[in-house]
Structures are given as structure tokens and as C-alpha cells.
Backbone:
């Protein structure tokens, strides 16, 4: 057999290399497409948002306390929507942060492997229930319950929205916090036990402080989910832009406004159509900032154990 | 050092020690109770929905279209719309997402481009779903002129679930032991041969599970579809991807928004149908995964 | 007069007395029916090839094995005449009285001061916390190196300093016995030497049980040596005897480096 390679083999080799190259390019294109989505989101929001701010001054948008874009006498102050979003998220945080952290401590420090394997999927189901169902639950179960104890509660109220959103984000907080707690090396636990610490002291004075940045990251991400949550708050908290601190009143969030405005007839080019984008941009920036902050805190946490 | 008087252990428990032990027990119970709150909330929610909706759940609900009269209304159009949307979203998002995951795990050079793509995917997963709706409205409905069609909805939901599928697939691919790849490369396989014959079959169960979980999320989505123009009142089942449509969560929402109690019951019954659909999907995921694992 | 295998313990009473001690990890019989007396204010070294059960045995002395779900302990360990494994004995109190230093330095991600103050704070010890911290750091021969930066993170210290910090942290709880599980195995020779000098110093006030895989180290620092092999206590006696004139062939093979 001759040692020289025939032309047929060379051609086969070349075609194989071509094929490999083509496959790699296609795969790269798919991965790169995801960046285009981000570009698309920003471009889509930006275009109409700029149009919006040609008609409404940024000062009015950020300082006016009235959001009445559909009335004859229009006002475009985003503050009531912002406060609605963040108050409901804060209320959800009051419920989900402690419960989520305690759940994480239970799963990571107390529960045996079998109990953990049972509980974790159940909590994941909690995160997988469609949000419209949470809205139904808030309106038909939580609100009537609140009205038994606090008769002045309005049919649409922020408290019920906070409660269901809080339940909804428990799994986000608990699963990320649990990851952080479990990343704490066992040698630290042993060190504390060796000093005569009880399980409570090991958990709260060593493990939780050591995992603190990971826990904080989970808190921020949970709150960001709450700010972006749409259907449950739309159904439960109603559609009244309301600058108030009273959780028993109706409030409109940024997300609820977007739903309300897009359900109506909003022809392209009108100011109401543009408000969708201005409010959407505000929502996008707020959640993006929180997500980036959360990732940054988490990166700090990973550094500590490397 | 002075001689210590030996004190036998466990003889005198001080008040301090007793309190410490009590706190320990209380804290363990507190953590357990907190965990149960989540579980209990889920149970109460399901029971509430079942009590409200079961009496209204019958064949007529599945075969009737939306109606002004609650006793005649049903989810036929919404269920069909949800299934159309589910299939179309899967067809669009699955190949692109898996390809992206393969690139990032098996091909991507370590460098800033890869890092940008990866960070970007993580960030996209955190963007509120309604923002995807705004993108869908501006891009698919208006700019591309796809109008309020199933295709607009499916494209929007595809963008929404892609980051989730990509990240789940990456995890599944990463879990394939490197020795498998080394063995295949050692036999002179090309990169694509290694990926398609060795890595993908092993990662497939994980990819499948991740995809179905992501698609379950899509099936439960309401907000982005409201923006791309799905409506709560559709009196026909779609025949093509350019048809107008509604989906179960949206139908439920439109019933919840009505003040009459009859519509609330209808909403609860619709929720049961939606939950059954999700349950079927997840059961399918488990069965498919087990089958894929058994074949290995 | 307490004796072990007919060896005079020099009039000191036993600090710990193990009788028929066995440890099982699931099916594995890791420590098999060990009888051992630890004389007070002495350094006892546990040696043997890896996997021989020496660390497991050490962990029996302050009930650290309780933390391993699959572990089961049989037999008794007497401490001031009280069996540590009797029902009603709180392992937390046991560990407070019998401290432990681990193989790898494991300071908490806190300041140097807070690491040492951790035990006293937790145990609600009375007295001047600053003084306790200083005294513990002095005893651990670390005070001169860290007195001006007590608020720095413990992670800023070198490995050897971290291990001495862990010793100081243990001493701050004022234990009677200090268990050390290969405390120098992760350290360089100079840091190791400092730990060894420290152990020699600590012997005046504490009883020390140390696990080591380094036979020279056992010979240098211990008064008594126990040789374990495959879960069994093969031979126990004064260190000099074990290293120069062992009774058992297996001990001789091990200390002369013929296996292990």
C-alpha cells in the first residue's frame, strides 16, 4: 500500500472540515442570537420611550404624583406606579425573606436527605404554579379572609397581592439561600461544634454569617421577581394608581398598568401606546439593576470560598 | 496553674444551658414550621381551587367556546390555543436553545465574547415576562406585521423560555463526564461527532426535563400574551399559525375579572384544566426521562 | 494507682478512660473494642497507617462522631468517672470541656478577635472578654503577631497562624482536654515546629491527645503513644518504649517504616 494519500481522501478530509466549520458557525449563531434578544428588548423599549419623552418631560415623569394618562387632563407621574410596585414587593419581602431563609436553614442544616428530597420538589411546584392562579387565590381566598379581620379592606388591595407574591417567591429565596448555606464548608460547622456550640449556634452564628452574601443575593433576586410579577398583582391589587402607604387600599403597579393599557385599544403612535414603553423601560431598568446587584453580590460570595 | 476541681459532666445543668437547649429546640421547630408554610400554602391553594371549580368541571366545559352566559361557556378555544402555542413554542425554542448550549459548553473559546453571551443569558432569564410582551408587541406584532397571531405569541414565548432552556441544557451537558469526550477524541472523532454521538445522547434526559419545565412556564404565562394581543373572547379553534387565539391563563383571567360568582366558578374550573395540562406535561417529562435513562 | 498494660502513669489519674470502645460506619467496623487510658497533663499520640481508625477514635472522645449520621458508637468513655455516652449527657457540654483542633485550619470568616471570642460569647462565660481573648492568644503563642490587628479577617493570616488561632479559639472555652487531629499536616515545616513547641507548652495545663501520621512528630512531642492498625489498638505505652523496644512485631514494622 502506498504511503501517499490519494486525492479522494483529501477531498473527503476537506469536506469534513467544511462541514465541521459550518456546524460550528450555526451553533455560534444560535448562541449569539441571545444577545440580539437583549438588543431587541432595549431597542424596542428605547424607540417609543424616546417618543414618549418628546411629549412628556422627564421631570414630570419622575416628580408628578399623578398617573392619569387616559383622562382628558393628562398626568404622567410614574411615582404612584413605582410606589405600588415597590410597596407590594416590600410586603412580599416581609413574608418571603424570613420564611425563605428559615426554610433554607431547615433544608440545609436540619432536614435529612430523604426529607429534603421530598420537600424541595414541593417548593418548586410553588414556583411553577401559573401566576394567574395566585391572582385567583388572592382575590377569592386571601382578600375575603383579610376582610374578616380588617373590614375596611378594599376588594382590590395591596396586602393580598403582597401575601401571594410573597408565597410565590419563597422558593426563589429558599433555593438560592440553601445553595449558599450548603456551600459553607463542613469544616466550619465542625469547628463550631468542637467549641461546644449547639446546632442553633452553629447555624445562626457561623453558617448563616458565612453565607450572608449568597443569602443577600437571593433576597435581591426574590424582590426583583416580586417587582416584575404581573398577573397576581393585577388581579389582586387592582388598577388604581394610588400614592399611598395603606396596604388595605388598591394600588396599581407598573406591570398592572401595562396590562390595563394593552387590554384597551391603544393604537400605535398615540401617547397611551408610548406610556407602555416608558413604564416598561422603567420596569426593565429597575429589575435589571436588582439582578445585576444580586449577581455582583453572589460573585463576591464565590470569591470568599475560592 | 492551680489544680482544677474535677466536676463530673452532666451533673448540674445551669439555667443558661437549659435556656440554650430550649432555644435550640424552638429554633428547629421554627425552621420546620417556616418550611411547612410554603407547603401548606400550596395545599390550601389547590383545595380552594378544587372546591370552587370541581362542580363546574364537565365535558361541556371542554367542548364549549367562550360565552356571555357562564352556564354555556367553556375552554375549548383556550385549550386549543394553549396547545397550539405550546407546540409552536417548543418547535422554535428547542433547537435554537440546545444549539446555543452546545456552543457554549463544547465549542466556545474562553474569552470576552463567550462571557458576554453567558452573562447576557443569565440577565435575560431575570427579565420580567411582561417586558418580553412589550418586545413581542413592537417587534412581531407591529414591525414584522405578524399581527395578533399564534405565531407572534409563540415567538414571544420562545424568547422568554430560551434562556431557561439554554441554562438547563448547559447544566446537563456539563454533567457528562469529560472522560467520555476524551475517549471519543482519542479514537479520532471530530468535535461534532463527539457531540452528536456521545455528549448529546447522555445529556438528553437532562435537556428534556429542563425544556419541559421551561415550556410549563410558557403554558402558564398570561401577561406577555396580553401584550401581543391574545384576547379573552375567541369563539373558534385556530386552524393555522396566523389565526387569532386565546390561551387558558388568559381565559381564566378574563373570567376572574368579571364580578359574577358564576364566572368565578368557571375560572376555577379553567384553572383545574390548566393544572391538569401542566401535570400531564410534567408526567410526560418524567416518563420520557426515565425511558431515555433506561435506554442508556 | 492507675496503670495501662501494666505501665505506671506516674501517679496522675486518667483524664479519659475508654472501655470496649467500638465505632461502626454502617457496616464498617472502624474502631474495634479499644481500651485506652489517657493520663492527665500528658501528650498522647495516636499513630497508625491511614484508615486505621485513629481519627475516628479521637472523635469519640468529644462525641464528634454524633454528627456523622451513619456512625454508631459502642462502649464507654469515662471522664471524671462519668460515661460520656450515658443517656442524658449533652454532647454540647462534652465538647465544651473537651476541645478539638482539626486537620485543616478552619477559622470562621470573621475577625481574629471574633474567632477567639466566639466560644466565650456563646457559652456566656463571665469575666473580661478582652482579657480572655488576650490570654488565649498568648497561650497559643500568637498574641505578639496579631495584637495590633485583632480586627483583621482571620483569613488574612498564614496557614500556621490560622492553626494557632484555632488553638487559641479552643483554649478560650477553657477545656480540660484538647484533641488534635493531625494539626500540622497542612502546614510547612517551620509552622509545624511552632505548633509542636506550643503543644509542649500546653501540656502543663491541658491533657492533649494528638493524631499524627508523622512518626517523628509523635516521637518528638508525645509522652505516650498508641499504635492502631485496622481498627484495633495494637500497642500502647510510653513513647520511648514504643519507638525503641516495642513488644509487637507490627508496631516495630510500622515505626521503622517497613509499612504504612
Residues:
Amino acid at each position: 500500500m502506498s504511503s501517499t494519500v490519494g486525492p479522494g481522501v483529501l477531498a473527503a478530509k476537506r469536506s469534513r472540515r467544511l462541514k465541521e466549520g459550518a456546524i460550528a458557525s450555526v451553533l455560534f449563531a444560535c448562541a449569539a442570537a441571545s444577545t440580539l434578544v437583549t438588543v431587541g428588548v432595549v431597542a424596542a423599549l428605547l424607540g417609543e420611550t424616546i417618543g414618549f419623552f418628546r411629549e412628556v418631560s422627564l421631570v414630570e415623569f419622575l416628580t408628578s404624583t399623578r398617573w392619569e394618562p387616559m383622562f382628558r387632563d393628562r398626568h404622567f407621574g410614574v411615582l404612584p406606579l413605582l410606589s405600588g410596585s415597590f410597596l407590594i414587593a416590600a410586603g412580599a419581602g416581609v413574608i418571603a425573606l424570613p420564611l425563605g431563609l428559615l426554610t433554607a436553614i431547615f433544608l440545609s442544616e436540619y432536614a435529612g436527605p430523604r426529607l429534603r428530597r421530598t420537600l424541595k420538589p414541593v417548593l418548586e411546584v410553588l414556583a411553577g404554579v401559573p401566576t394567574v392562579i395566585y391572582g385567583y387565590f388572592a382575590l377569592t381566598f386571601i382578600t375575603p379572609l383579610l376582610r374578616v379581620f380588617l373590614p375596611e379592606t378594599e376588594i382590590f388591595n395591596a396586602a393580598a397581592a403582597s401575601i401571594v407574591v410573597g408565597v410565590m417567591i419563597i422558593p426563589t429565596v429558599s433555593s438560592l439561600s440553601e445553595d449558599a448555606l450548603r456551600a459553607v464548608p463542613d469544616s466550619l460547622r465542625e469547628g463550631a461544634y468542637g467549641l461546644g456550640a449547639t446546632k442553633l449556634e452553629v447555624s445562626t452564628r457561623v453558617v448563616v454569617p458565612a453565607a450572608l452574601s449568597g443569602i443577600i443575593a437571593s433576597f435581591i433576586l426574590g424582590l426583583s421577581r416580586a417587582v416584575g410579577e404581573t398577573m397576581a398583582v393585577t388581579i389582586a391589587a387592582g388598577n388604581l394608581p394610588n400614592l399611598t402607604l395603606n396596604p388595605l387600599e388598591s394600588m396599581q403597579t407598573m406591570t398592572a398598568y401595562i396590562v390595563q393599557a394593552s387590554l384597551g385599544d391603544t393604537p400605535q403612535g398615540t401617547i397611551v401606546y408610548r406610556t407602555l414603553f416608558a413604564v416598561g423601560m422603567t420596569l426593565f431598568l429597575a429589575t435589571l439593576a436588582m439582578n445585576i446587584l444580586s449577581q455582583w453580590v453572589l460573585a463576591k460570595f464565590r470569591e470568599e470560598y475560592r | 496553674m492551680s489544680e482544677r476541681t474535677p466536676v463530673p459532666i452532666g451533673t448540674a445543668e445551669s439555667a443558661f444551658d437549659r435556656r440554650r437547649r430550649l432555644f435550640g429546640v424552638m429554633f428547629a421547630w421554627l425552621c420546620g414550621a417556616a418550611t411547612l408554610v410554603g407547603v401548606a400554602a400550596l395545599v390550601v391553594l389547590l383545595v380552594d381551587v378544587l372546591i370552587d371549580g370541581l362542580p363546574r368541571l364537565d365535558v361541556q366545559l371542554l367542548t364549549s367556546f367562550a360565552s356571555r352566559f357562564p352556564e354555556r361557556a367553556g375552554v375549548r378555544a383556550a385549550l386549543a390555543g394553549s396547545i397550539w402555542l405550546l407546540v409552536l413554542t417548543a418547535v422554535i425554542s428547542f433547537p435554537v436553545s440546545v444549539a446555543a448550549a452546545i456552543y457554549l459548553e463544547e465549542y466556545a473559546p474562553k474569552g470576552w465574547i463567550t462571557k458576554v453571551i453567558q452573562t447576557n443569558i443569565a440577565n435575560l432569564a431575570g427579565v420580567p415576562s411582561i417586558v418580553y410582551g412589550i418586545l413581542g408587541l413592537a417587534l412581531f406584532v407591529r414591525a414584522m406585521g405578524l399581527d395578533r397571531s399564534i405565531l407572534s405569541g409563540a415567538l414571544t414565548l420562545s424568547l422568554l423560555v430560551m434562556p431557561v432552556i439554554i441554562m438547563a441544557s448547559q447544566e446537563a451537558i456539563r454533567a457528562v463526564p469529560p472522560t467520555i469526550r476524551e475517549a471519543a477524541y482519542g479514537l479520532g472523532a471530530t468535535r461534532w461527532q463527539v457531540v452528536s454521538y456521545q455528549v448529546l445522547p447522555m445529556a438528553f434526559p437532562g435537556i428534556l426535563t429542563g425544556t419541559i419545565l421551561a415550556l410549563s412556564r410558557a403554558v402558564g404565562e398570561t401577561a406577555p400574551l396580553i401584550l401581543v394581543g391574545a384576547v379573552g373572547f375567541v369563539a373558534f379553534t385556530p386552524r393555522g399559525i396566523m389565526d387569532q387565539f386565546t390561551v387558558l391563563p388568559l381565559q381564566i383571567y378574563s373570567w376572574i375579572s368579571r364580578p359574577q360568582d358564576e364566572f368565578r366558578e368557571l375560572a376555577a374550573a379553567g384553572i383545574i384544566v390548566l393544572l391538569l395540562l401542566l401535570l400531564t406535561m410534567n408526567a410526560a417529562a418524567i416518563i420520557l426521562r426515565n425511558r431515555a435513562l433506561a435506554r442508556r | 494507682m492507675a496503670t495501662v498494660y501494666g505501665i505506671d502513669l506516674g501517679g496522675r489519674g486518667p483524664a479519659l478512660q475508654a472501655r470496649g470502645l467500638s465505632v461502626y460506619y454502617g457496616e464498617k467496623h472502624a474502631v474495634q473494642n479499644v481500651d485506652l487510658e489517657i493520663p492527665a497533663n500528658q501528650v498522647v499520640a495516636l499513630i497508625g497507617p491511614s484508615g486505621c481508625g485513629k481519627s475516628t477514635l479521637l472523635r469519640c472522645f468529644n462525641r464528634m462522631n454524633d454528627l456523622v449520621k451513619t456512625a454508631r458508637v459502642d462502649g464507654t468513655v469515662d471522664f471524671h468517672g462519668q460515661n460520656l455516652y450515658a443517656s442524658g449527657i449533652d454532647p454540647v457540654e462534652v465538647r465544651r470541656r473537651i476541645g478539638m483542633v482539626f486537620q485543616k485550619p478552619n477559622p470562621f470568616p470573621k475577625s481574629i478577635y471574633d474567632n477567639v471570642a466566639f466560644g466565650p460569647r456563646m457559652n456566656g462565660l463571665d469575666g473580661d472578654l478582652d482579657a480572655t481573648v488576650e490570654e488565649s492568644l498568648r497561650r497559643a503563642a500568637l498574641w505578639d503577631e496579631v495584637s495590633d490587628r485583632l480586627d483583621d479577617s482571620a483569613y488574612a493570616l498564614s496557614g500556621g497562624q490560622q492553626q494557632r488561632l484555632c488553638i487559641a479559639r479552643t483554649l478560650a472555652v477553657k477545656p480540660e482536654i484538647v484533641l488534635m487531629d493531625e494539626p500540622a499536616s497542612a502546614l510547612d515545616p517551620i509552622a509545624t515546629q511552632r505548633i509542636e513547641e506550643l503543644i509542649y507548652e500546653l501540656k502543663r495545663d491541658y491533657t492533649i491527645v494528638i493524631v499524627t501520621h508523622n512518626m517523628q512528630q509523635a516521637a518528638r512531642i508525645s509522652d505516650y503513644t498508641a499504635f492502631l492498625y485496622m481498627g484495633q489498638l495494637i500497642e500502647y505505652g510510653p513513647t520511648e518504649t514504643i519507638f525503641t523496644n516495642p513488644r509487637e512485631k507490627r508496631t516495630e514494622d510500622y515505626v521503622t517504616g517497613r509499612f504504612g
Chain B has two domains: 15-56, 60-295. Chain B has eleven helices and no strands.
